[in-house]
């Protein structure tokens, strides 16, 4: 039997290659090709393309950007047959059926990058060791390259240990986690209906190097919205009365949104991230676009924030006589992990070489769309949990983000493997 350490060189090579070729959410064609080819060679069945999603819940897609990315991937040598299979939808569910009775266990790994220009100084480990991003303005500044590499390492371990596994194992390589856009389509599909155990993880966050944090409960429910106001243009001097000012509707909505009363029963958050409006200095602005988000400690508190936001947007549109459209661009929910799985993660982490501290987390201020996958499994009686495996990072989504991959990735890999040994291995 191969030792855990024997999987590290391939994981490192994969992570460092992916780090040099980051791809934004819904455009991860090169990454998906690598995943598909690797898992198929290891004997996994795959679900890709439209079959992976409920298309009514694939949020935040820019079809023009996706087409451009697909065409560029083909020009760069991507397999045309795989591109045809994807049909514009990235990501992959890799399924290993042992042929023996047992539970269905799903592990989730996100694959997209963020729009950050990577630091190119000796302070950055990727620069020092020669694997910085080759794509201007894009970087794996949140560790999803490491998640993907760990997932493929786990796939190889499953292949190598197939004779002592039972049940089914589903590895979910999820696109478009940033902005909480990609998980909902999978969560609302039929692809999780048979899953008994759902486990996700993230590198870093509250866990430092040689630490594992077990999420007993936490994350904020969130909804992301794109808002369009459409008015009537007019000359601002000679006939302003004929105009309907979408710009002012958006500006007033932005001010009101930031003043939503906080909920007395839990944390809330709202942010107006982008306002893009107007046509010219002397024209009543007929068009305005906003990108906003609301968050709540629990789903019912987030629902309160949603209702307030929609009411204020509608009111401002009415006040200025303009039309408006609200489009959901992403979502996630809060989580309450199942105790049994949390205890197994704790046990696995404590028995992992290099882990010096294991701790519980009962509150986490960010959002994570793996929560939707977890919630979908829990709704039909399955169990779910989430954990952090640590690194010494300066902050996620920063140009200096780094993970000490030779030390951090083996921890995530080992915890996943030990969980599979408990949940799906025979004679253990």
From TrEMBL:
Extract the coiled-coil ranges from the record. none
Q: Secretion signal: which residues?
A: none
Provide any one GO MF term from the record: dipeptidase activity
Its keywords, alphabetically, are:
Hydrolase, Manganese, Metal-binding
Question: Which note does the record give on the cofactor?
Answer: The Mn(2+) ion enhances activity.
Q: Which residues bind Mn(2+) 1?
A: 397
Lineage: superkingdom: Bacteria
Query: Keyword Ubl conjugation: yes or no?
Result: no
One GO term describing the cellular component: cytoplasm
Q: Membrane spanning segments where? A: none
Q: Can you supply a Gene Ontology BP term from the record?
A: folic acid catabolic process
Which InterPro entries does the entry link to? Amidohydrolase, Bact_exopeptidase_dim_dom, Peptidase_M20, Peptidase_M20/M20A_hydrolases, Peptidase_M20_dimer
Q: Which residues form the Peptidase M20 dimerisation domain?
A: 224-299
Keyword Metal-binding part of the UniProt annotation: yes
Q: Which cofactor does it need?
A: Mn(2+)
Where does this protein hold Mn(2+) 2? 142, 144, 178, 202
The identity of this protein, by name, is: Amidohydrolase
């Amino acid at each position: 039997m191969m030792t855990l350490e024997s999987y590290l060189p391939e994981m490192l090579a994969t992570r460092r290659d992916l780090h040099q070729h980051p791809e934004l959410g819904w455009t991860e064609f090169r990454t998906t090709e690598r995943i598909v080819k690797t898992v198929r060679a290891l004997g996994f069945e795959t679900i890709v393309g439209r079959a992976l999603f409920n298309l009514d819940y694939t949020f935040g897609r820019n079809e023009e950007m996706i087409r451009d990315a697909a065409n560029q991937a083909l020009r760069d040598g991507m397999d045309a047959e795989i591109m045809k299979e994807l049909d514009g939808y990235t990501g992959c569910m890799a399924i290993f059926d042992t042929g023996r009775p047992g539970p269905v266990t799903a592990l989730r790994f996100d694959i997209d990058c963020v729009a950050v220009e990577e630091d190119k100084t000796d302070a950055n480990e990727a620069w020092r060791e020669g694997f910085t991003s080759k794509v201007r303005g894009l970087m794996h500044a949140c560790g999803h390259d490491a998640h993907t590499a760990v997932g493929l390492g786990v796939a190889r371990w499953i292949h190598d240990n197939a004779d002592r596994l039972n049940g089914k194992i589903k590895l979910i390589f999820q696109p478009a986690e940033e902005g909480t856009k990609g998980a909902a389509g999978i969560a609302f599909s039929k692809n999780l209906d048979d899953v008994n155990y759902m486990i996700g993880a993230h590198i870093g966050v509250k866990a430092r190097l040689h630490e594992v944090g077990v999420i007993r409960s936490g994350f904020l429910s969130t909804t992301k919205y794109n808002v369009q106001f459409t008015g009537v243009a007019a000359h601002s001097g000679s006939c302003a009365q004929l105009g309907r000012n979408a710009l002012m509707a958006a500006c007033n909505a932005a001010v009101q949104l930031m003043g939503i009363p906080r909920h007395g029963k839990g944390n809330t958050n709202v942010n107006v991230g982008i306002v893009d409006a107007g046509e010219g200095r002397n024209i009543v602005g007929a068009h305005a676009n906003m990108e906003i988000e609301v968050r709540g400690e629990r789903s019912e508190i987030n629902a309160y924030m949603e209702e307030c936001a929609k009411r204020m947007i509608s009111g401002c549109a009415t006040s200025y006589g303009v039309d408006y459209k609200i489009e959901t661009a992403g979502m996630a929910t809060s989580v309450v992990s199942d105790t049994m799985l949390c205890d197994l993660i704790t046990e696995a982490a404590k028995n992992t070489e290099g882990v010096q501290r294991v701790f519980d987390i009962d509150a986490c201020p960010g959002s994570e769309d793996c929560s939707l996958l977890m919630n979908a499994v829990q709704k039909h009686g399955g169990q779910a949990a989430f954990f952090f495996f640590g690194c010494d990072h300066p902050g996620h989504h920063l140009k200096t983000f780094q993970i000490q991959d030779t030390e951090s990735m083996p921890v995530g890999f080992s915890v996943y493997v030990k969980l599979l040994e408990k949940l799906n291995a025979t004679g253990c």
